[in-house]
Amino acid sequence: MKSLAPLPPRSTFEILAAPPQVLEKFLLRVLIPFLYRTYDFLMHRTVAFRGNELALCARQRRSPVPLTLRSRAFSAREIRAFQNSGRLFQISLAALLCAGMVPDRLLADENETNNPSAQAAPAKSDSPSPGMTERERMILHHAEQLDAVPQEPQSQAASQQAQTRWHYGGFADLGYLLDFNHPSNHLFRNRGTTRRVNELDLNMAAIYLTKDVSDKSRWGMELEAQAGEDSKIFGFSATAPNLGGANWLRQIGKADVSYLAPAGKGLTLQGGIFNSLIGYDSLYAKDNFEYTRPWGADYTPYLMLGVNASYPLTEKLSATVCLISGYWHLAHANNVPSICGQLSYEATERLTLKETLLYGPHQADTALEFWRFFSDSIAEWKQNSVTVAFEYQLGTEKVAVAGNPRALWMAAQLPVHWTVRGPWSVTIRPEFAWDRDGRWTGFAQTIKAVTSTLEYRIPYRWTNTIARLEYRFDDSRGKGGGFFRGAEISPGVDSLTPSQHLLIFGLIFAFDSH
Q1: What would the DSSP string read from start to end of 278-309?
Q2: Total structural domains in the chain?
Q3: Chain Cα centroid distance, residue 93
């Protein structure tokens, strides 16, 4: 800003009769000091009130003092200054009205004539004008800082927020499992996912639409349609009848609505078909470290049908409770719902602990003694490119048959994932599962398995292509254990072997507008 030299004394008539160029310069020299004083006067009135002493002191960059005495002294001084400027204000207002009659183009032409370089780029002085007070310099500096920050139009920002709350996507999952036992029926025995071997299969394909909840848009939803080999039997039970309409419901993945209630820190309510609280692995291979799922995942629910409510108790501890139709969301064992709850605790920045409990009947006899109890405990540790998790499951129930025997299930896994460099990562997962009475898998057996995976990811804009090469070894021992091998021994009698080696190729293409 250039320095403004003082004007020689002139009469009001001489000022009003002056050319527009002179009148404009006069207005600038008169109005700027007047506006600074008016700003100081009004700003003091804005922040100087009882109960706002800290804001007033912060504005004046001083330590707090009793506001009453300070306000009175300031008020008297500023009111006198404002009154003395009243006459000047009247003259300035008259000049301003006259200047408003002058066309803008006339003033613009005069500026361009006197300063030809202004057409290219206006010069910007780094040092404030020597004629300005310290307060005026501070105000000018603050205004320049505000102008330097790019301001996004409010409507555009709101539009972008609305777009990010809604997103859609889909994926296709192709897999080939080479089984060195070469079973004639092409089946991976006792499995609910990746159950076909020695053939190229579309294991899962889905499209979805999602709206996230927030404090500005409290309603949310998820809707997902799916198809493929993995969608055929994953939600059914071997010991309970199917739910009515299950044949078309299995083509529906998540289908729920949610609401973020303005209660405390935010109570989230959800109803419909939603992700299961039990388990470390997802139904969809794209969301997991490895292509095939562990035994514990295939024999616990991937999805639940019912309602749930979650609430953050503290910054580190959150709780979720739910009321669901049953253990398997596509089975209908009885009309009595099951209850479940989960506590999630962030012990450190790297360590997260989860405990989930489920309690309810999963057979026709709904007496309390026959209710199933299930516990799922998960610990996950992350540091930079390494993730280590441990999951332990325990399930038990009395079976309503002769003798009322108690069935028992235990399973555990220890996946270790390492992002080697860029798109490359490796994972190894040892696991075991023990179905003592055959209540879960249908056969009494103890299964040990180890899986190793090499992964390469190709992200491009809003798509992600995942290629996986996997080796898996399973060993099953027990009265009903084993895996299919070769052809049938006789019609209806399969040939079984206790171990199985698989070499797996997986290709997943996914996209998401988010």
Answers
A1: S-SS-SSGGGSSSSSPPHHHHTS-SEEEEEEE
A2: 2
A3: 56
Only one residue has tokens 């696991």, namely 431
pLDDT tens, residue by residue, 38-76: 555 445 444 444 444 444 444 444 444 443 333 333 344
- Asked whether residue 350 falls in the same domain as residue 498, the answer is yes
CATH at residue 238: 2.40.160.10
Question: Is residue 161 in a domain?
Answer: no
Where the chain has pLDDT below 50, the residues are 1-9, 11-13, 16, 41-42, 44-130, 135-136, 139-140, 142-143, 146-158, 160
In the chain, what are the helix, strand and coil shares in percent, each to the nearest 5? 25, 40, 35
- Name the residue range of residue 183's domain: 174-512
- Residues 298, 213, single domain; the answer is yes
Q: Which of 361, 354, 351 is nearest to 326 (CA)?
A: 361
Which of helix, strand or coil describes residue 129? coil
Q: pTM score, two decimals?
A: 0.69
- Unique residue bearing structure tokens 């007047």: 34
pLDDT digits (tens, 9 = 90+) for 362-413: 999 999 999 999 999 999 999 999 999 999 999 999 999 999 999 999 999 9
For helices 86-99 and 20-47, angle between their N-to-C axes, nearest 10 degrees:
130
